[in-house]
Write a structure and sequence with these properties.
about 35% strand; single chain; eight-stranded antiparallel barrel; about 350 residues; 7 helices; 18 strands; alpha+beta; elongated; six-stranded antiparallel beta sheet; about 30% helix
C-alpha cells in the first residue's frame, strides 16, 4: 500500500467518523436542558467580558484585537465551540430573529450604522439592556460595554438574533414576555410610535453660481428648516417646514414639504411654497416674475455620518432644490431664467434629536 493510498484511507475514515458523529452532536445540542442552555450562554457572555479593552482593528479576530463581527465570531468559537459565520450580514442570516421581549443574555443584537439596508454592526447581549461589542469609532473604541438605551445605539438598533438554545422553558418565556409587555404597556401603547420619531433641524446658507448675465458664485440667502421623520424600517417618511430668505429673488419663502428618506444619509422632498413678496429674476434688470404655490419646490438632500453631542446628533448637510416661478402672465419662464431663479444649493449644519431620548 502506497503512502498516497494510506492518506486517502485516513481521509475517508475521518469523513465517515464525521458523518456518524454529526447527528449525535446536533442532537446533543438540541437536547440541552434549559439549565444547560443557561450555563452555555453564561460561558459565552463571561468569556467575551475578558476581552474588554482590546482595540478595534478591521478584519481582526483576536486574540489581541478584533472588529465587531470578528469579536463575536472568536468568542463563540473559543468559549463554547460554536462555529458561526464571519461577517455581520452572514451572522444575521444564520440567526433566528426573535422578538425583543424574548431576548436573553447570549443572544446577538444587530444595528444599522451605515446606509446599507443590511445590518452593519453586532454585539452580544448580556442582560439589563447592555451588550458587549467592538466599536470602531466614538468616544470609546475597541471591546466595550454599552447600553441599548444610549442615544446612538437606540436609534440604530435593528433586530435581535438567536443562535444558542433558549434557557427559558416555554412557560418561563411566556411569563417573561407577559411581564415585559405588561411593565412597558403604558409607554409602548402611547410611545411606540413616538419613540421612532426623530426631530431634524437644518440651518444653512444658500448659493448658486449663475445669473442671467454671468457665471459666478452668488450668495442666495439663508434657510432654517424643521422636520419630523418616522425612523421605521426601510424608507422613512416625514413632514417639514422651512423659512427661507432668498435675497436673489427678494422674497421670503415658506415651503411645506413631505420628505422621504431612503437611508440615513439621503432624502427627497417636495411640496407647496408660500411666498411673501414679489419675486424678481436675479439679474441687473430685476424683472418681476410670479411665484407658484403648487407645484412649489422639489429637492434632494444628503448628509455626512453624524456625531453625538450630548443628546443631539450633528452632521453636515447639502441639498439642491428647485423652486417653481412663472412669468407674470402665468406662462413658463425661459429655461435660463427658470434655472437662474429657482435652482439653488444649500450647505449647512444638521441637528437631529430622537424623541426616544424623552421616552423611558
Amino acid at each position: 500500500m502506497t503512502r498516497t493510498d494510506r492518506n486517502h484511507i485516513m481521509l475517508l475514515a475521518c469523513f465517515i467518523t464525521l458523518l456518524i458523529t454529526m447527528p449525535r452532536l446536533c442532537a446533543q445540542s438540541s437536547q440541552l436542558s434549559f439549565k444547560e442552555a443557561g450555563e452555555l450562554r453564561k460561558t459565552f457572555v463571561e468569556y467575551g467580558k475578558k476581552y474588554i479593552g482590546c482595540p478595534y482593528v478591521s478584519g481582526a479576530t483576536g486574540p489581541v484585537s478584533f472588529d465587531c463581527s470578528g469579536f463575536v465570531y472568536a468568542v463563540s468559537r473559543e468559549s463554547i465551540g460554536y462555529q458561526i459565520p464571519r461577517v455581520v450580514k452572514n451572522i444575521y442570516k444564520f440567526c433566528t430573529i426573535i422578538d425583543e421581549s424574548q431576548r436573553e443574555p447570549g443572544d446577538l443584537v444587530f444595528f444599522k450604522t451605515t446606509s446599507s439596508p443590511e445590518p452593519s454592526h453586532i454585539g452580544i447581549y448580556i442582560g439589563n439592556g447592555q451588550f458587549l461589542h467592538c466599536a470602531s469609532d466614538g468616544p470609546n473604541t475597541g471591546v466595550i460595554l454599552s447600553s441599548l438605551n444610549e442615544n446612538y445605539w437606540k436609534t440604530r438598533y435593528y433586530k435581535t438574533g438567536r443562535f444558542l438554545p433558549s434557557s427559558n422553558s416555554p412557560e418561563q418565556a411566556g411569563v417573561l414576555a407577559s411581564t415585559e409587555k405588561t411593565s412597558s404597556s403604558s409607554t409602548n401603547s402611547s410611545g411606540s410610535f413616538m419613540s421612532k420619531i426623530v426631530l431634524e433641524g437644518i440651518f444653512s446658507a444658500d448659493w448658486n453660481f449663475y445669473t442671467a448675465e454671468n457665471f459666478r458664485l452668488n450668495f442666495r440667502g439663508l434657510t432654517a428648516s424643521l422636520a419630523a421623520i418616522y425612523n421605521g424600517k426601510g424608507m422613512m417618511p416625514g413632514i417639514a417646514t422651512m423659512f427661507r430668505w432668498d435675497c436673489g429673488t427678494n422674497t421670503i419663502q415658506i415651503p411645506i414639504t413631505l420628505t422621504l428618506s431612503m437611508t440615513e444619509f439621503f432624502k427627497i422632498f417636495a411640496g407647496p411654497v408660500i411666498t411673501v413678496g414679489t419675486p424678481v429674476i436675479p439679474s441687473s434688470q430685476l424683472e418681476e416674475i410670479k411665484p407658484s404655490f403648487f407645484p412649489g419646490i422639489i429637492g434632494i438632500c444628503w448628509n455626512t455620518p453624524s456625531f453625538a453631542v450630548g443628546k443631539f446628533n450633528l452632521s453636515f448637510a447639502q441639498d439642491i432644490h428647485y423652486t417653481v416661478f412663472n412669468s407674470q402672465d402665468g406662462t413658463a419662464l425661459s429655461p435660463i431664467n427658470s434655472v437662474v431663479s429657482g435652482l439653488v444649493f444649500s450647505s449647512g449644519l444638521r441637528v437631529t434629536f430622537p424623541l426616544s431620548n424623552l421616552i423611558k
